[in-house]
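Q: Structure tokens for this one, please.
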Amino acid sequence: MDKMQRFMAAARGERVDAPPVGSWIHFGSALWEPELSADVHLRFLRAYDWDYLKVMDDYRFPTEGGLREAATVDDLRAIGGAHLPYDNFDRQMEVLRRIKRGAPDVPTLDTVFSPFQTVIRALGDGVVPLFKAHPEAAHEVIGMVADRLADFVRASAGVTDGIFFAVNGACADADGWGLDAAQFADWVAPYDKRVLEAAGDRVRVIHVHGYDLIPEWVDDYPAEVMSWSHNQSRPTLGEVARAGRYVPMGGLDEVGTLYWAPSKVRANVLASRRETGDRLIVAPGCTLHSDTPPAIFHALAAAARMPLPAGD
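A: Here is the predicted structure, written as tokens:
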């Protein structure tokens, strides 16, 4: 199988010759020109011969007057307007085009943050208590941001093979922002789904961010693959594989990996493959540290491709 065939079949839950493997780190590319960002992604891809490439997106949403902190409910309306100049989308689209030209046979997943998290990334964590106090503003603002993200996802159809959609709020730790089930269902989930649906027939990976996950809150998301910090939170990879709702993406503990020996990486990945019966897409549970040594990435790729030892 070639890389595109392998990844697409695995995302459908089908048997493949070896589970596709990939990884990612934060390059810190918010101030980079698209040419540099695309070149670094392609170098990372070729250095480890990944089966798929998750494309990072560090470009922030524009706001009225360059506002970067929301102190009042009116400040929330500084983001998401259709009239704003979305140079962040222009820059990311150029990154995606250059990567697709440079690696046309490698599946690419563009990173898309949830509308809720996009507002937090642009205007700071003060937006959360404002949303809780003014749910009507939450619907208005998150809805506008969802529309802009959905437009971009549709526009990227020719240069991506899927999206890696980061979900925030579906966990009981600090990354959940203290949302309860009603708040998540009311003004987070509907707008997440709007963006996911815009991807059409491309592969949709939901990355449910945080520890102490509440996976039931995302059971009905329109996606094929689920990524999460499975070494730190429920459910297990095996539970998701057996349930059949999502294909699990994972296999490597991203928290301790920085100082692991390659043999420990290999053991971790092989255990994950055994647990799922090789019905998974191999990846870290979340981004690996930018300082991760090359030996770790090489060990990850090798462990995904080696035959499972006899008896496994």
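A few notes: Strands lie at 53-55, 108-113, 162-167, 203-208, 225-228, 247-252, 281-284. The chain has a mean pLDDT of 97.
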